[in-house]
Write a structure and sequence with these properties.
Chain A has strands spanning 4-7, 10-14, 19-25, 32-37, 43-49, 52-56, 59-64, 69-74, 83-90, 96-98, 102-107. Chain A is mainly β. In chain A, strands 2, 4, 5, 9, 10 and 11 form a six-stranded mixed sheet that branches. A five-stranded antiparallel sheet of chain A has the order 1-3-8-7-6, with no helix packed on it. In chain B, a hairpin with a 2-residue loop joins strand 7 and strand 8. Chain B has strands spanning 4-7, 10-13, 18-25, 31-37, 44-50, 53-57, 64-70, 73-79, 87-94, 104-106, 110-114. Classes of the chains: A mainly beta, B mainly beta. Chains A and B meet through strand 5 of A and strand 9 and strand 10 of B.
Chain lengths: 108, 115
């Protein structure tokens, strides 16, 4: 059983729309990663957060440690935001548990 | 320098070849990782090096042989691979394996095709 669940699995939206991707996890953690991967490409770390909210440009990430839930928001989405967004948490044995990813496609 | 650099970006090799993947970082990170990623799947951990010592080997076949010559460099030696080993191989680093604050930096990966 994957201990990190993301939703939705796939998301297609029009340029300019506000995007929300959700991540729920079952392990107790102190921090959570949001990662971005373009097709065929490497992984870029977007955020690592342990509480509250972080903002970087049009990206906003929030986390609620008590509810074991995090969200990634994209404001004013653009076709170049099309990618797979992955939620990842550190496991108790110092590995990383990855979610299955959310495939985002922004239409011009 | 805040990057993890992987070379080559693409590699095609035959099943009898020997090749190596290289990963380099100059951020002073003391933990380095190899991941394998198949299409449309999350990355799977292969190896973890902590302070230049192999600390985790996720039961990876011996045709994959990791090496950490120094704190900045991580290699993955490949020998007698199978077509099913074709994948994106990702390197990552972190300040140390217990890093819960600054997180991980990933390389852009090596796309490996075994023919």
């Amino acid at each position: 059983k994957n201990e990190v669940e993301q939703s939705p699995q796939n998301l297609t939206a029009q340029e300019g729309e506000f995007i929300t991707i959700n991540c729920s996890y079952s392990v107790g953690i102190s921090a959570l990663h949001w990662l971005q991967q373009h097709p065929g490409g490497g992984i870029v770390s977007l955020f690592m957060l342990s509480s509250g909210k972080k903002k970087h440009g049009r990206l906003i990430a929030t986390i609620n440690i008590q509810e074991k839930h995090s969200s990634l928001h994209i404001t004013a989405s653009h076709p170049r935001d099309s990618a797979v967004y992955i939620c990842a948490v550190p496991s108790p044995d110092d590995k990383i548990i990855f979610g299955k990813g959310t495939r985002l496609h922004i239409l011009p | 320098d805040t990057e993890v650099t992987q070379t080559p970006k693409h590699l095609v090799m035959g099943m009898t070849n020997k090749k190596s993947l290289k990963c380099e970082q100059h951020m002073g990170h003391r933990a380095m990782y190899w991941y394998k990623q198949k299409a449309k799947k999350p990355p799977e951990l292969m190896f973890v090096y902590s302070y230049e010592k192999l600390s985790i080997n996720e039961s990876v076949p011996s045709r994959f042989s990791p090496e950490c010559p120094n704190s900045s460099l991580l290699n993955l030696h490949l020998h007698a691979l199978q077509p099913e080993d074709s994948a994106l191989y990702l390197c990552a680093s972190s300040q140390d394996p217990l890093d819960r604050v600054y997180g991980y930096t990933f390389g852009s990966g090596t796309r490996l095709t075994v023919v």
